[in-house]
Amino acid sequence: MRTSRDGRRRGRPVLRRQEAHAARAAGRPGPVKGLAVDLGSSGIRAWVTGQGLVTGGPAGWEDAATRPVRRGRIVDADTCAGLLGRLADTALGADREGSAVVLSHPVLAGREHRATARELLASLGASRAMVLNSAGAVARSAGDPAGGPVLVVDMGAGLTEVALLVDGTVVDARQADAGLGDLDPGSVPAELARNVLDMITSMWREDRHGAVRGALRRGPVLTGGGALRRDVTDRITGCLGVPVRIAPDPSTAVVRGAALFLDSVLCPAVEGKATVRPVRLR
Prior knowledge:
This protein is an alpha/beta fold. 35% of the residues lie in helices and 21% in strands.
């Protein structure tokens, strides 16, 4: 992938905000073509406006040692650029005018990962390109974009994250560089539940306003591959002593939440409603 770091030409920049406002003021319709993408450690999932989920599972992820995304982080930008380019060609066509793309990322993705994600999006040439944290996407797909504290527990193949959202904004998060793919098959429930419990306990100790307690009363939202395992979810329920909520279709919850965010961009009528705002974590 060509980046600004090596002095080579970058992809087309995203449409400036002023141009989007001008188009809306002139009464022209908003974007009609959209693509939402979740680049996970176990595969790529995409949602195309008007078509729904178009791909899922491994796509160049067969060999764990050469996967372009590991522990939720982009490690091979060139391969990811090729995959995203092919998706955009199929979903958006050659004319990208008025199109929008959303790419999800882990809540605690580092600065380098976020910068790479933005460069990948810019290279697609869409009119609007946005990044969205995965916890916010899951909260949307579970019907909790705003309106009180929510705990999202994302148990993926190579990464486990716990995020606390208050009124749709991430206010605290914890991450463990371990997932279902790292654990011994005979001890998956115990190890995964212990990781999740440790992260929630850490949040609880630093919670000064009762948000974690309120989120636990509502029930944590479980997503990712771990949420599909009854032995895992039962163990977490037993450890926490509270009921949990399983996100609808946990393996695609992130991309479906990103698709809902995409819809809010594509449809001006719903703009101004609850959105997931970027924040600086402690």
